[in-house]
Write a structure and sequence with these properties.
mainly alpha, 35% helix, elongated
């Protein structure tokens, strides 16, 4: 993965608090939420570079992320 850039960002405290609450609601850090919003805005404007790396995947995979045909530990349904 390419080295990440650091940026100093000055925000109105009320804006920062709103971003932090939004990030918490979506289980992200404030920094990750800002990057998510910026990437979405760039994509919507058609300005997201094609060479931009995907955002890092963090945390555990969702339980419903298992493919439907993947084997399970459950016994087969007798009916």
């Amino acid at each position: 993965m390419a080295e990440r850039k650091s940026v100093l960002l000055r925000l109105d405290p009320a804006v920062h608090d709103a971003l932090t609450r939004w990030a918490n609601d979506e289980l992200r850090s404030t920094n990750a939420q800002i990057e998510f919003i910026l990437r979405r805005a760039l994509a919507e404007a058609g300005r997201l570079p094609s060479g931009a790396s995907a955002p890092p995947r963090r945390g555990r995979p969702r339980k419903d992320a298992r493919p439907r045909d993947a084997p399970t530990d459950e016994p087969p349904d007798p009916g």
